[in-house]
Write a structure and sequence with these properties.
Protein name: TEA domain-containing protein
Shape: elongated
Family: Belongs to the TEC1 family.
Order of helices and strands: HHHHHHHHEEEEEEEEHEEE
Structural class: alpha/beta
Pfam families: TEA (PF01285)
Oligomer: single chain
Number of helices: 9
Distance between the termini: 122 Å
Number of strands: 11
GO molecular function, one term: DNA-binding transcription factor activity
Largest sheet: 7 strands, mixed
């Protein structure tokens, strides 16, 4: 065999071995996937009614539903698990409810709330054992601000500087912000205990220091059953305005309800000044029935601010407190408060 023939034979053998190796590789590639399957995007969780009490024990369940309904994206971790499963969404809502912004310049002027993301992140960790960074919390709150249309949830996302009488310790007298332009009126709603339909003429006035405050308004001369009181409030303005009433209900030191209600213009209202304009709104309409049904309405404090849509200036500020006559009083809490300096919008309590 010549040298050239032996060379061609070895060359063909090498080509055959190379072809065999390629065939084995191709067979192995055909038998195994090229990449791991990408996990599908989780769908919105379907919640049975009896599951709410287990998942959201203290969070407002209606707010949690509003959060879930506002979802547009369902981001996942590398493991395929949702970043915000139902348990963490519930803790996020709870933390948002529990957070009370400081009445500082950054909050009042810029609408920013220092420490809120850190507070909620820590709240989630303490109540679920799972950690979400303040940056992740801020990103989720931003998504809610952009997509949520629920008024009560938006009031939590954009809280005002409303303060209950028990919250005003350090912020009292700082002299800045919208609330410094108007006095905060004390409105005393004298009521009868449940089951008492009419007040005897010999009843003593309520044992409340509110009576000694010059800014206190009593809506009636005699206490009445709360169920018979019309919760309509009317305001008189010298010029036409577009405004909304912001309410906050406090139980002790805890805020349990917030809502925004637009003022309604009352046409053809009989006013002493024909050039004036009359507006009305209901007192905390989303929570009024709960107060009426309560065994002790004096536990509740209602804070109200009326703000104009054009400048967001506070035109009226008031705190409403329920009180029993002395004969029926059994150690309910009372409070006093010094109003801020300034003017006030006209007010008539339609009760």
């Amino acid at each position: 065999m010549t040298w050239a023939r032996r060379h061609r034979t070895k060359h063909h053998q090498r080509l055959a071995k190379h072809s065999t190796r390629l065939s084995r590789v191709n067979k192995a590639s055909d038998s195994s996937p090229l990449r791991a399957p990408v996990p599908s995007r989780p769908s919105a969780p379907f919640i049975q009614d009896n599951a709410w009490s287990d998942t959201a024990k203290s969070a407002d369940q209606r707010l949690l539903r509003a959060v879930l309904q506002s979802r547009k994206l369902y981001k996942t971790l590398d493991s395929g698990k949702a970043i915000w499963p139902l348990q963490l969404e519930a803790a996020l809502v709870e933390g948002l409810i529990q957070f009370h912004p400081q009445e500082c310049r950054e909050t009042l002027m810029l609408g920013r709330f220092p420490g809120r993301n850190q507070f909620i992140a820590r709240y989630i960790w303490e109540h679920t054992g799972q950690w979400r960074t303040p940056k992740q919390v801020g990103s989720r709150l931003q998504q809610l601000r952009e997509s949520c249309v629920d008024e009560e949830l938006r009031a939590l996302l954009f809280p005002t500087a409303l303060k209950s009488p028990t919250d005003r310790n350090a912020s009292e007298g700082q002299g800045y912000g919208p609330t410094a332009e108007v006095p905060r009126r004390m409105v005393c709603i004298d009521i009868l205990p449940r089951g008492v339909l009419a007040a005897p003429s010999s009843l003593s006035p309520p044992p409340s220091p509110l009576s000694d405050c010059p800014e206190t308004i009593h809506i009636s001369q005699q206490p009445r059953s709360l169920a018979r009181i019309d919760p309509t409030i009317t305001f008189v303005s010298r010029t036409p305005i577009v405004a909304q009433s912001k309410f906050k209900v406090c139980l002790g030191n805890e805020t349990i309800h917030v809502e925004n209600v637009p003022l309604e213009f009352v046409r053809d209202a009989p006013l002493p000044d024909p050039s004036a304009y009359l507006y009305r709104t209901s007192l905390v309409p989303g929570f009024w029935k709960s107060i009426v049904a309560s065994s002790d309405p004096t536990r509740y404090t209602i804070c109200q601010e009326v703000t104009t849509a054009e400048s967001c200036a506070v035109a009226f500020s008031a705190v409403y407190k329920f009180s029993y006559p002395a004969e029926y009083s059994t150690g309910f809490d009372t409070f006093g408060m010094s109003p801020l300096n300034g003017g006030m919008a006209g007010l008539h309590c339609g009760a």
